[in-house]
Amino acid sequence: MFTPAEIVIAVVVLALLVFVPILRRLLGLIVRLAVFFIAVGIVAAGVTMIMNNETIFERPGLGQRVVRFLTMNSAAASQTGSGAVTCVLEGPPPPPPTAAPAPHKHPAKKEAAAGAQDTRVDVTSAAPAPLDDVFPELIRRSFPGIPRAKLFQLSTETVNSLGGWRIDKSSPSNYTLDCIYTSRIFKLEDDVRITIDPSGDVEVCSRSGLARPGTTSMLRYFPGDLGSNIGHIKEFYEALEPKMDEVYKEEQDKQNAKKPPH
After folding, report:
1. For the segment 56-115, what is each residue's pLDDT rounded down to a tens digit?
2. 42 and 56 together in one domain
3. Domain region containing 41
4. What is the maximum alpha-carbon separation in the chain?
């Protein structure tokens, strides 16, 4: 129920709007501006997601994707593909858990990877993600059987082939690439780190440049990324996997050539 004071305030406001034309015009202008800016924001968000090859309609669904795109400004591939995993580029990595589920394997690589063991422990997630939190783009890709140096080389070539990407720092000794992605329209920069694990896992971690410590841009107050960081991870994996297919095919051809004729 409304209090007497609230009723009096409401009556006064209505009376002012009815009997003071300038207030009606001012209110109408405010409403039109609000509608305009909301429409512009929706269009801008849609264009940004399209340019990042992302959509709000894929798994795990519209609700989860909208919330994530509007509230998180980083993303990281993991064994589970959980959207809750964030990208931390400063400081030491968190301690490994005691157990972890098996990583995602590239479906075309099962035969070539036969007999290989993956002893890696995931440092980002110790338990399976709920089904409503699994983003397919964030399932970490693994390429067992390919030498680590070869994976690092092909990852470097992949980054160099992508528009808007550049390698800021290459560390062959620890098989890590620190990259910067620059958006085509607004020229915003995002940080992407790619690391090759001994097991053949290709780790990808992406964070909005607006989330860098010490940034002074006013846009830093917007907590989301409109799907850009997931889009970077997706773009890199989609460009890398055909190169891996070629490597596995070449290895398979070599094995077939060694087999004695029937």
Report:
1. 888 898 889 989 999 999 999 999 999 999 998 875 444 433 334 444 555 445 444 443
2. no
3. 4-46
4. 99
- Torsion, Cα of 210, 214, 216, 217 (10° steps): 0
CA distances from 11 to 5, 7, 262 (A): 10, 6, 96
Q: CATH number of the domain that 69 lies in?
A: 3.30.310.80
Number of domains the chain is built from: 2
The Cα 209–Cα 188 span in angstroms is 7
Secondary structure class of 6 (helix, strand, coil) = helix
CB distance 87 to 76 below 8 Å: yes
**pLDDT (tens digit, 9 = 90+) per residue, 142-194?**
999 999 999 999 999 999 999 999 999 999 999 999 999 999 888 889 999 99
Residues 109 and 186 reside in one and the same domain:
yes
Claim to verify: residue 25 and residue 107 sit in the same structural domain: no
Q: What stretches of 135-220 show up as alpha helix (H) in DSSP?
A: 148-161
What's the N-to-C CA distance of the chain in angstroms? 90
Residues 142, 239: one domain? Answer: yes
Go through 223-252 and write b for each residue having 16 or more CB atoms within 10 A of its CB, e for each that does not: ebbbbbbbbbbbbbbebbbebbeebbeeee
Round to whole Å and give the CA distance between 109 and 104. Answer: 11
Q: What are the angstrom distances between the C-alpha of 22 and each of 15, 29, 79, 207?
A: 13, 10, 60, 47
The alpha carbon of 157 is separated from its chain's Cα centroid by a whole number of angstroms, namely: 21
27 and 120 both lie in a single domain: no
How many residues are listed for the chain in this entry? 262
Do both 36 and 57 map to the same domain? no
Angle at 230 between CA 227 and CA 234, to 5 degrees: 130
